[in-house]
Amino acid sequence: MEIKRVGVIGAGTMGNGIAHVFARSGYSAVLCDVEQRFLDRGMETIGKNLDREVAKNKITTEDKAATLKRIEPVVERAKLASCDFVIEAATEKFDIKAEIFRDLDRLCRPEIILASNTSSISITKLAAQTKRPEQVIGMHFFNPVPVMKLVEVIRGLATSQATYDTVKSLSEKLGKTPVEVNDAPGFVSNRVLMPLLNEAMFAVMEGVATPEAIDEVFKLGMAHPMGPLTLADFIGLDVCLDIMRVLHDGLGDPKYRPCPLLIRMVDAGWLGRKSGRGFYTYA
Ligand SMILES: NC(=O)c1ccc[n+]([C@@H]2O[C@H](COP(=O)([O-])OP(=O)(O)OC[C@H]3O[C@@H](n4cnc5c(N)ncnc54)[C@H](O)[C@@H]3O)[C@@H](O)[C@H]2O)c1
């Protein structure tokens, strides 16, 4: 079956980026969220991000208009029944995603693949919510989606080879580079990245160096485009804490203990760039 029409659940940071790249690659996309205002905000972001691509001469103004026309924002989830592939990018809570997967399993044709963009929730557990676990897979895009090349493709315990092959080729058609990973807490990206960020936070807490100094070490010494504390603020400190907890609970090793300073900052509502304050302050 040829995939032409794609469903995206969640119009937030990742969902609008995912709808953007599918539509820009010629797919028609149905973008679904729970309220019209989230869809309006998502479509506005897509418009602005397409403007950036026009300004960089990556696409023309006609491409922008055609891309926007291929996206249908909807509140009614039933409209996803016509899709040939669905990817979920809703809030990172197991209960929310579990309900979505049960409902999609009921709504979508039996041959349709259901993917999740989760950064840490078990694909195997999401697949077990459906009667088609062999057609459930992780398709983990990176922020900002229109720019970042990587898609971590995560096989759940039951994911079939055919499902993996389809999602690998779909990622390539979007101009992305898929990397195959098995289902384990944090997959590869967050399993390796988050302990680095967490350790940088321990270094701040213990007075080893300032956030500025630590970030400078990584930029100049390791050629990282941004230091670990700037990156943590960008990702969101609440998201960092949730992922450290997934690693700690799922792998049971004390080396994944979330930094107490991180916990205190999240308790204070200092969530990084999005709240105006994290390891740095933002206007
Ligand atoms: N932000 C990142 O850097 C990043 C990177 C990779 C993966 N992810 C993953 O992507 C997913 C989405 O993250 P985000 O940063 O875009 O979050 P976000 O908060 O920006 O957006 C989530 C959206 O999902 C919507 N939503 C919630 N419940 C829903 C439901 N039942 N049906 C439809 N829509 C619903 C919300 O209204 C919101 O608009 C999460 O699983 C997250 O772990 C995030």
Numbering strands along the chain, what is their spatial order in the largest sheet?
Answer: 3-2-1-4-5-6-7-8
| Distinct ligands, ions and cofactors found in the model | nicotinamide-adenine-dinucleotide
Q: List the secondary-structure elements in sequence, H or E.
A: EHEHHEEHEHEEHEHHHHH
- Stretches with pLDDT under 50, minimum 5 residues: none
Helix content percent band: 40-55%
> Biggest sheet: strands, sense, closure?
8 strands, mixed
Could you tell me how far the N terminus lies from the C terminus, measured between alpha carbons in angstroms? Answer: 49 Å
Helix count? 11
| Share in β-strands | 5-15%
Mean pLDDT: 97
Radius of gyration (CA) equals 19 Å
Instruction: Tell me the total number of β-strands.
Output: 8
Category from helices, strands and their pairing = alpha/beta
Oligomer: single chain
What does the overall shape look like? Answer: globular
Q: Which helices and strands appear, and what pairs or packs with what?
A:
Blueprint: E1 5-9, H1 13-24, E2 28-32, H2 36-55, H3 61-69, E3 71-74, E4 85-88, H4 94-107, E5 113-116, H5 123-127, E6 136-141, E7 150-155, H6 161-173, E8 177-182, H7 189-205, H8 211-222, H9 228-235, H10 237-251, H11 260-267
Parallel strand pairs: 1-2, 1-4, 2-3, 4-5, 5-6, 7-8
Antiparallel strand pairs: 6-7
Helix pairs in contact: 1-2, 7-9, 7-10, 10-11
The structure holds nicotinamide-adenine-dinucleotide (NAD).
